[in-house]
Amino acid sequence: MALRFIHSQLFVTPPAPTGSYAGQTVIVTGSNVGLGLEAARHYTRLGAATVVLAVRSLEKGEAAKRDIESTTGRSDVVRVMQLDMSSYQSVLDFASTASKTLPRIDIAILNAGIAAGKWAVFEQDESTITVNVVSTFLLAFALLPKLKSTAQSYNIRPTLTITASEVHEYAPFDERKAPDGQIFARLNQEIVNGKPTSMEQRYQVSKLLEVLAAREFCALHPASTFPVTLNFVNPGLCHSELSRDSGWFLYFLKLVLARTTEVGSRTLVHAGSSGQESHGQYLSDAKITPPSAFVRSDEGAEVQKRVWDELVAKLEGIKKGITTV
């Protein structure tokens, strides 16, 4: 795994996006900086009709909009909408507003995420799990009706892409040993067996949970019967603000190995443009790639179903308790 990672970072450069997105509407979350910003810039440059920057700070979103417009020479394309992934209400309100006000959604890149350095609780769970897992899938499922109606109305196959990570391969995920129905409860314990939860490992775990949940959803909704492609992408180690709280080791690793945010963003655009063959697939270096050995194992398949069942129950509970705009 380590050799593959180093080879990818040093010797593989994903191709620059080409082609036309004329007439298409694209949503990119977490797009005021980093990978999301650069992906939105590519979509704007390549002719998209509407590019939605879904961001927590409207002020920063407007600054990103001006930056994209100045570098692409295109105006009246980028639209800024507020989305706070730490708030379930904000997630559902965003999805509701987008579904009502956008004529179509061709591509949704769910890129917003955090790598928290300290324990905190957002909504019902530890912050990393709330933002990277629960809110990400809450948003995905809330956007699916609009994506499906777009497929029917325009005779296309929209794409929903989740920004995952190769670090899912390194996640210890001891929480999988929790009793049935208690994985998320165990993830929400700050102290386990007298030891504090390792926040260095929590980001890895969140990315593994994304992979497992996405795979199970696609297993239950195969491409042959489902009109929207759902895939998940590894952009590689990139220079971004995501890891600003992750310590000195990652800081020095990035100095040596990290891709630029623009190069990393190419993988997001590629995944968002991939077709039916990528449904339920993990993409890395702009190609379909096997996920970790654990994910593909018998134990991984069993844990995948458990994670999915718990996540669905959690999402159903959230939607029942919240009214959208």
UniProtKB/TrEMBL annotation:
Cited Gene3D superfamilies: NAD(P)-binding Rossmann-like Domain
Entry keywords, A to Z: Oxidoreductase
SUPFAM superfamilies, alphabetized: NAD(P)-binding Rossmann-fold domains
UniProt keyword Hydrolase, yes or no: no
One Pfam family in the UniProt entry: adh_short
One GO MF term attached to the UniProt entry: oxidoreductase activity
UniProt protein name: Short-chain dehydrogenase
Species: Paraphoma chrysanthemicola
